[in-house]
Input
Amino acid sequence: MASRPSAGAAVPAEERELLSAEDVARTVARIAHQIIEKTALDSGGSHVVLLGIPTRGAPLARRIAERVSAFTGVRPSVGALDITLYRDDLRKQPNRPIEASSVPVEGVDDALVVLVDDVLFSGRTVRSALDALRDQGRPRSVQLAVLVDRGHRELPIRADYVGKNVPTARSEDVAVRLTEVDGTDSVLLRRPASGRREDSGAEDGTGEATNEPDPGEVGPAGKEQ
Amino acid sequence: MRHLLTAEELDPDTASAVLDTADMLKSTLLGREVRKLPTLRGRTVITMFYENSTRTRVSFEVAGKWMSADVVNVSASGSSTGKGESLRDTARTLSAAGADCVILRHQASGAPQRIAEWLDPTGTRVVNAGDGMHEHPTQALLDAATLRERLGDVAGRRIGIVGDLLHSRVARSNTHLLRTLGAEVVLIAPPTLVPEGVRNWGVEVTHDLDSQLPGLDAVMALRVQAERMHGGFFPTEREYSVGYGLNAARTAKLPEHAVVLHPGPMMRGTEIAPRVADSARAAVEQQVRNGVHVRMAVLYHLLAGEENTA
Output
């Protein structure tokens, strides 16, 4: 951390826990319940395929599937859909490693596909996932589940299932940690070391997301400044 | 990676990254209805082949097309080279015409290196698809990919390369890459087909194939390159075959798990017997299939990333 001459001591990067391990488990369970309700997959509804977007969407999809199967006895198909090769910003970044995709053998044709990701931000990842999905087949419909919606959409995309809405500044960073990848479960909000914030991101229209607001919701955007 | 000119210059991390990407591309495309990825949309790849080739040219073309690049093929016979244009002018012309990447096969060792120097200021990437008796790095990569699939890992394995080492860019590239990846390489050839300076490659060289066979995890038969042999390397093809051809009796001496590779085109009956070439041990078609994925991976590493501002 660079030392700062002003303000006496260096201002460290702030880090606040948005969701604890228990919160993550509860949120995953709630999303599972919502998926069951909306897709009616336990009462002869649709064939549901949960496709996680690597890195952390993939274990999330597996967890949601596990919950759904525990609640209903019906196990939805699970897979992973890597979108690296479909990104629209490949030329603006150093090379990214490609991660494994695993689409269930029965494919996605005529299935109800639920894309699963950890954080919904600009919406570009989801757009890439929709492109990637199109090359896999033709689902009957596609829905989106995310653990955290942090706003700042750049494309007309919204989630069908949201674990938690979090107003953020663009300069902030939402870090989702999952045991399968990081050894621990939590969601952190990191502020940059300077403490400066360019804009507040609560203006996006995530309010229409299907879930009820979480009691642990971060305060209104005014708090950001 | 800016250009891919030799296998010698690949460090272990880069080589493994390319092989991992190839694996991922292969599994991504497996069983898919649409075998095309949008990754290199709007990129132009020009293949320029001054020597004959089936598999290398085709697999580069397929690789480019599966990544949605626009692929243009130029052959020496149909181009202005026939009118006397220099290599440098041809290369600059292709770059000016919009090539993001030039894939070159040339009979002169070092030609891709020269083109890379000439084109460096333009940002056009260069891939060596075989230069003279020097290197053929994508062949080495696809062989390594095949060995990884068949043997699990290359590190610690003992790989024999048999045959016309003198004229073989495949032998040179494979030796470098396999050693980089941690394999033990033994070169096996008649004394007349061992290149000068081979002692500096840091590998074992022997003239006796039969004694090596039981200790090998893989054996690669090289093509006898009649077009580069102007006299007297061995008395007859028959005699070569007796001493160094892979036949059923020889492959029976290999361990159960050992793989037989051949870069193609195969001269059946000379360096490899038809029965061996068509056996389950042989990975010749798997090598070709992997060639497409490895070349996709190379194009991905050269062209997909950050816009180059040289």
In short: Chain B has two domains: 12-135+288-304, 137-283. The mean pLDDT of chain B is 92. The two ends of chain B are 13 Å apart (CA to CA).
